[in-house]
Amino acid sequence: MIDPTLPVRDLGFAALRFVEQLGTLTAFAGRALAALLRPPVRFGLLVDEVWKLGVLSLVIGCVRGAAVGAVLSLQGYNTLARFGATDSLGAVVGLSLLRELGPVLTALLFTGRAGSATTAEIGTMVATEQLDGLRMMAVDPMHLVVVPRLIAMVAVMPLLSALFILCGMGGGYLIGVTLMGVDGGRYTSNLIANVDFRDDVVGSLVKAVVFGLVVGLVSTWRGFTARPNSAGVSAATTSTVVTASVTVLLLDYVVTALWSL
Amino acid sequence: MSVDGQDGAQHAQPGQGGDVLFEHVRMAFGSRRIFDDLSCRFPAGKISVILGGSGSGKSTLLRLVGGLMRPQAGAVRVGGQDVTRLPERALYAVREQVGMMFQAGALLDSFTVFDNLAFPLREHTALGEAAIRERVHAKLASVGLSEGEDLLLPGQLSGGMLKRVALARAIIRDPRYLLCDEPFSGLDTISARRIENLLRGLNRSLGMTMIVISHDVPSTLRMADHVVVLLRKAAIQGPPAELAASRDPLVANLISEDVDEAVLASGGVEGSRA
């Protein structure tokens, strides 16, 4: 006979596990912050990480941005045409990219590419005892492995997001103006007139920084706490994608609401 | 020969020079108990070899010395400091005096052999690149590797080369304590003998305290000053000659080159732990 209290117990177990995970993540973030404030600054490693996580993502980021902008322009034109408001296409595409799609989609794509790779790399270091090797050489793995990746992710995300938005606007312009026949001057002036620097541009950058921090923390934490075997590394990588993606989407609402106050 | 076990019979007192001391250590992974009440001593300036069956906790013992694990109870003293009670930052100060050679190498896989060896020097010393290069090549030569091999990545090394690079990294700063997890496994006879001579030389010249896990009985008999045999109920320790003459068939078989058929039939050392 099935125990009728089982669902309640499962729920309780899941809730406890969630709180425990949140606690370990917070402790991990505290340790990372402490390591961040401790010299020396590993500038060479930071540049390496910016190269790996950022520069190598430039092309794919541009292509994705342009594709999203193009689709947005096409869909937006068809909708606006029903109301005779196709002149507003520039504002629709630009604001959609700036406020939401730019930072959110960049974060989701960044999670899939850089976040999962970071978790897998650190997890493999755990499985092959490289982190223990560092500890035995009196080198804090938080300082050597986590901090440079974390800083790089926070620094790179706003740049990738900005590039995504720019390419999106370019893609949107290309479709709206050259294909759908919207006047280029009106497209651009409408876009400029409707974008508010503080609300839209700064808000977008703030979101990107917050998302970069989320992806960086989740991916390094999951890698750092991965079980030391191939299944553990695989599970940690999957968990990074799921946790970071859901957190980004939830935080998107929170940041938007707070920034609108 | 002394037997230190659950009765906590004989072990050295805390703070005894550079000794490594285990005092009533209890260690378990979940429900699997590794040590119930382990007490043993690794004397300063000597080569101690740990013997024991598979799963007897030899590698765990080394990790406890390095502070990589914390036991459920008991104390592990390294040069008088209880590493089980030290906060992480203080532990790093102890680890600066410890070199550890891991069983699988634990080399940084994105660094070349040269950078793996140079890394601790760059982190903890003010040596210039020329001095670092000289030291790295000297240590590589001491383990039988040539300068031409220092540009290889760990993934390009054979098992034996990996071991030797790991050992070279562990001794790069001539630490006060050296922990070696199976330094001879996977090595050909000449390489094993070279490593054995190297360890003995470092011990004699620098007074390095060494704790070595080895299944290589001839090497153990040649180089060990002190042997600790890990059994489930106790750690039996003493000079190798005394242990070889032990009347306990498990101990005698672990330290002998010939295994008694009766011990094999009983399931060996692992069987004795059930």
Number of domains of chain A: 1
What's the overall geometry of chain B? globular
Largest interface pair: A-B, 14 and 23 residues
Give the percentage of residues in beta strands of chain B.
15-25%
How is the biggest beta sheet of chain A arranged? Answer: none
Query: How large is the radius of gyration of chain B?
Result: 19 Å
Description:
The complex is a heterodimer of chains A (261) and B (274). By secondary structure, chain A is an all-alpha fold. Helices cover 85% and strands 0% of the residues of chain A. Chain A has one domain (59-259). The longest helix of chain A has 39 residues, at 89-127. The model of chain A has no long low-confidence stretch (mean pLDDT 93). Chain B is α/β, with parallel strands linked by helices. Chain B has a single domain (2-97, 175-272), classed as 3-Layer(aba) Sandwich (Rossmann fold). Helix content of chain B is 36%, strand content 23%. The model of chain B is unreliable at 2-15 and 267-274 (pLDDT under 50). Chain A binds chain B through residues 124-125, 128-130, 132-140, and chain B through 63, 66-68, 88, 92-93, 95-96, 98-100, 102, 104, 106-109, 119-120, 123-124, 169.
What is the element layout, followed by pairings?
The complex is a heterodimer of chains A (261) and B (274).
Chain A: H1 6-36, H2 43-53, H3 58-82, H4 89-127, H5 130-136, H6 141-179, H7 184-194, H8 197-224, H9 230-259
Chain B: E1 2-5, E2 20-29, E3 32-42, E4 47-52, H1 58-65, E5 73-78, E6 81-82, H2 88-95, E7 98-101, H3 113-124, H4 129-142, H5 159-170, E8 177-181, H6 189-206, E9 209-213, H7 217-223, E10 226-230, E11 234-238, H8 240-244, H9 249-254, H10 261-265, H11 268-272
Parallel strand pairs in B: 4-9, 4-10, 7-8, 8-9
Antiparallel strand pairs in B: 1-11, 2-3, 2-5, 5-6, 10-11
Helix pairs in contact in B: 3-4, 3-5, 4-5
